[in-house]
Amino acid sequence: MPDSTLLNRATLIIDQVTAEKPADYVLRGELGAAKYLDPEEKRDISHAVFAYYRWFGWLDTKAATQARVASALDFQRKFDADPASFKPEALAVRAVPAWVASEIDLTPAYLRHLQHEPTLWIRVQKEFAAALPRSLGNCTPAASALIPEALRPTALAYSGKTDLYKTSEFQKGVFEIQDLASQIVGHAAAPKPGETWWDACAGQGGKTLHLAELMDNKGLIWATDRNTGRLAALRKRAARAQVFNYRANTWNGGPFLPTKTKFDGILIDAPCSGVGTWQRNPHARWTTTPNDVKELAEIQLQLLNHAAGALKPGGRLLYAVCTLTKSETIAIADAFTTTHAAEFEPSPVFASDPSGHAQFFIQPHEFNSNGMFIAAWKKR
Ligand SMILES: C[S@@+](CC[C@H](N)C(=O)[O-])C[C@H]1O[C@@H](n2cnc3c(N)ncnc32)[C@H](O)[C@@H]1O
Known about the structure:
By secondary structure, the chain is an alpha/beta fold. It has helices at residues 3-14, 23-33, 39-54, 65-81, 88-94, 108-114, 131-136, 168-171, 180-189, 206-214, 228-240, 290-307, 330-339, 364-367, and strands at residues 120-124, 139-141, 155-158, 175-177, 196-199, 220-225, 246-250, 263-269, 311-321, 344-346, 359-362, 372-379. The strands form 2 sheets. Strands 5, 6, 7, 8, 9, 10, 11 and 12 form an 8-stranded mixed sheet that branches. Helix 9 (180-189) packs across helix 10 and helix 12 (290-307) packs parallel to helix 13 (330-339).
């Protein structure tokens, strides 16, 4: 695609973006409808739009959108060639909004990671772990010690150019597109075959499907969310992945629980500010506010308080958020521990972790993934 066409197409998209219509949403709609573009052209347009928001803090606000896109692509090329030429002090004030400095440790490694293109992770079902890399090509297994060794080949970084959603393997449910940090949450939960789990904020079921596979599809998972549209998507994905040991139901996060069942494990993958996804979704850096963090923190604590009563004695409670702000991570986990000290004790997030930490940050620059926080408790 000639440069001017690319800049025009990216500009048409950026000019439609607002806080209510975020860049990834507009991109999905526009590129989905543009049947005349080939996958490579679509990739180039996404690359230009995301580069615009990644380098937004460096762009001349008085210039036309098209000139700013061109400038953002220049910054991206310069950074990719020599990341060290961008000083951490400059990244700290331009790559992220000022308010996050009091909420996150803005280390140079984290800030540089934010300015790179993200890695695409897939999770392949165990039985296809050997065959899928051969048929797709361009797959590299995760090296993370937080994933049991036998299951590391199921988390694959994909660096090819094929549109994965269109592959027959995806359509048959052989693999899911799922970030490594989300996969690590499933391994932290470590449900056993035959157990009964509650995935309380199941959304479209990314983690429900993973829990089901870790349970060898034996036992039962209650998958709830307050959004019925997401639960409908969950049902479709579960059918594709041949997962049947679940029940999907609405739960609005309030004190009335969806069932009287007592669970061996509860996962609360709570709604959050999503700061841990800022590499993948740079537009969100400029629309997320401190007030969002404050409001979401209140919801997170409520969800934990309400759901925790459904755990069996000895059961495992897991809290996960794809954010790194102190208010939504350590502050929530510490508040829950203090309030529920008589019934819940902090428990190691990973059975295999010799340090036995009951709170764990998946730092995006260490895992080449989204950022995530996980806390775990055991019911006394
Ligand atoms: C981080 S997402 C879940 C992602 C999902 N677990 C996955 O792995 O695909 C958080 C979910 O919480 C749901 N949610 C938000 N507020 C809620 C509430 N008050 N009660 C229950 N669910 C809520 C949202 O609809 C959203 O689907």
